[in-house]
Fold Cytochrome c-552/4 domain-containing protein.
Amino acid sequence: MPRKRLVLFALFFLPVAAILTQCLSNKEIAATDPRGEDYTGAKTCISCHKNIDQSYIHTAHYLASSLPPDSSVHGSFFKGNDSVYYNDHAHIMMQKTDSGMYQASFINGQQVNRERIDLVTGGVKGETYLYWKENELFELPVSYDKTKSKWIVSPGFDTTIASYDRMVNLRCMECHASYAKTEPGKVASFSGESVGFDKSSVVLKIDCERCHGPGRQHAEYQFSNPDIKTAKYITRIQSLSQTQQTDLCGTCHSGTQTDNSRSIFEFKPGDKLADFKKRAASAGPPDLKHLDVHGDQLEMLKTSKCFSASKMNCSSCHDPHKKQHDEALYFAAKCETCHSNANHNLCKMTGKIDAAVLRSKCIDCHMPLLPSKAIVNEQQSVMIRTHHIGVYPDETSKILQYLKAKK
Ligand code: HEC
Ligand code: HEC
Ligand code: HEC
Ligand code: HEC
Ligand code: HEC
Ligand code: HEC
Ligand code: HEC
C-alpha cells in the first residue's frame, strides 16, 4: 500500500476499530441472567479475572453441580464393573448410549426402570446423579465413590431395592447451584407438596456472583473505564466483619438441619445469616455431641478456642479460588501465622518431635479426618476433616506409634 493511502486507511479505520473492540467487550457482558438484571454471569467476570478462573475451575465449588458431558461421570461402564447388586435377583446397570448415560434397574433379568443422568453433583469424594421427570428433579439410586473408585448405592438410600423416587428439594439446589427458580411440580404426588424448577432458570456450579453478589454494574463500569485499576460497585469481602465473612460461607456450610425463613439464593455478601436460616430446635444444641463433621464447618469452627480467641474466619486458612487438597505444609503455615514463638503459643510437642514432622502432621493431630454420622456408604462412614480445632490424644498416639515403627 502506498504511504498516503496507508495513512488515510489508518485515519479512517482506527476509530472504527476502536469502536468495534469496545462493542466486542460490551458484548461480553451477557444480556440476561436468570437471577435478574443486576447479575451478568461468570463468563463476564472471567473475561477480566482470567487468573482467578484458571484456578477456580479445579475447585469443589465449580464441581458442585454440572451437566454430565462437561464434568464427565467417573465410574466404569465396562462389563463386570458396570453394576451394583442388591441381591441375587436385583441389580442396577450403568449404560452409556448416544443419548446419554443411564441407570437401569433389573429384577430377575427384566428391566423395570431406567432413567438418564441429567445432572451431576460433586466430584471430590463422590458423585451423586439427578434426573428430570417433567419439571421435577430426582436423585438416582447409584452414586460413585471416588475414594474407592466404585459405584455404590446412593448414601441414605434403601440397600435392598432400587428407588427412583427421592425428590430433590430446593435446599439441595440452594447449596449446590447458583440459582433455580421454583414452580409447582408437574408430577402427580400423594403428598401434594412437590416442587418443580423452571429448567431454563438453573445456573449450575457455585459461580462468582453466588459469593460476590450481583456484579453487572461493576463489570459495566470496569469495561467503560479500562484505565481505572481499582474496583467499583462490588463488595470488598476482606473489609467485611468476621461474622459477615463467616456468614457468607455459612450460607452453605452451617448444617442441613435448619429452619429457613428466606431462600439463601438471595443472600449477598454483608447480609446476616440469621435473617435467612437458624439451626432447627430439633437438631439439638450446637455442641460437639450434636454437630456433624459433614457440611457444618462453621458451627464446628465456632466450638474451637482458635475461633473464639481470635478474629479468624474461613479465609484465614482457605483460598476460595483454589483447590487445596493434601497441602499439609500450606495449612501448617496458616496455623503459624498465629501460633509462633513470639506469641508464646507454640505446640506443646515442640522439641519433643522432629520439627519437620511437627509441621507435616500439624493438621492430622489437631484437625483429624473423622467419621461422619450423616454420610455412611455401605456401612462405612465417610471421613471428613473436622473443624473443631483441638487436642486429639488418640490421633497423636497413632501418629507417634507410626513414627516409632518407621524408625
Ligand atoms: C472489565 C473488566 C472487569 C470485569 C468484567 C469484572 N471485573 Fe472485577 N475487577 C476489575 C478490576 C480492574 C478490579 C480492580 C483490580 C483488582 O482487584 O483486580 C476488579 C476487582 C474485583 C474484585 C475485588 C474488589 C476489591 O475491592 O478488592 C472483585 C471481588 C471482583 N472484581 C469481582 C468481579 C466479579 C464477581 C465479576 C463478574 C460479575 C467481575 N469482577 C467482573 C475488572 C473487572
Ligand atoms: C452456595 C453455597 C456455598 C457457599 C456460599 C460456599 N460454599 Fe464451600 N462448598 C459448597 C458445596 C456444595 C461444596 C461441596 C461441593 C462438591 O464437592 O460438590 C463446598 C466445598 C467447599 C470446600 C471443600 C473443597 C474441597 O476441595 O473438598 C471448601 C474448603 C469450601 N467449600 C470453603 C468455602 C468457603 C471458605 C466459603 C466462603 C468464602 C464457601 N465455601 C462458600 C457450597 C458453598
Ligand atoms: C466460594 C465463594 C467464592 C467464589 C465462588 C468466588 N469467590 Fe472471589 N473471593 C471470595 C472471597 C471469600 C474473597 C476474599 C478472599 C480473602 O479474604 O483473601 C474473594 C476475593 C476475590 C477477589 C479479590 C481478591 C483476589 O483474590 O484477587 C476477586 C477479584 C475475586 N474474588 C473474583 C472472583 C471471580 C472472578 C470468581 C469466579 C470465577 C470468584 N471470585 C469466585 C469468595 C469467592
Ligand atoms: C446446607 C447445604 C447443603 C445441602 C442442603 C446439600 N448439600 Fe451436598 N454438600 C454440601 C457441602 C458443604 C458439601 C462438602 C463438604 C462436606 O462434606 O462437609 C457437600 C457434599 C456433597 C457431595 C459430595 C461431593 C464431593 O465432591 O465429594 C455430594 C454428592 C452432595 N453433597 C450432594 C447433595 C445432594 C444431592 C443434595 C440434595 C439432596 C445435597 N447435597 C444437599 C452442602 C449441602
Ligand atoms: C487467627 C489466629 C489463629 C489461627 C490461624 C490458628 N489458631 Fe489455634 N488458637 C488461636 C488462639 C488465639 C488460641 C487460644 C489461646 C492461645 O493458645 O493462644 C488457639 C488455640 C489453639 C489450640 C488449643 C485448643 C484447646 O482447645 O485448648 C490448638 C491445639 C490450636 N490452636 C491449634 C491450631 C492449629 C493446628 C491451627 C491451624 C490448623 C491453628 N491453631 C490456627 C489462634 C489461631
Ligand atoms: C485453621 C484453618 C482452617 C479454617 C479457619 C477453616 N478451615 Fe476448612 N479446612 C482446613 C483444612 C486443613 C482442611 C483439609 C484440607 C484437605 O483436604 O487436605 C479443610 C477442609 C475443609 C472442607 C472439606 C472437608 C472435607 O474433608 O471434605 C470444607 C468444606 C471446609 N474446610 C470449609 C471451611 C469453612 C466453610 C470454613 C469457615 C467456617 C473453614 N473451612 C475454616 C482448615 C481450615
Ligand atoms: C504428633 C501430633 C502433633 C503435631 C504434629 C502437632 N501437635 Fe500441637 N499438640 C499435640 C498435643 C498432644 C498437644 C497437647 C500436649 C499437652 O497438653 O501436653 C498439643 C498442643 C498444642 C497447642 C497448645 C494447646 C494448649 O493446651 O494450650 C497448640 C497451640 C498446638 N499444639 C499447635 C500446633 C500447631 C500449630 C502444630 C503444627 C504446626 C502442631 N500443634 C503440631 C500434638 C501435636
About this structure: The first strand starts at residue 83 and ends at 85.
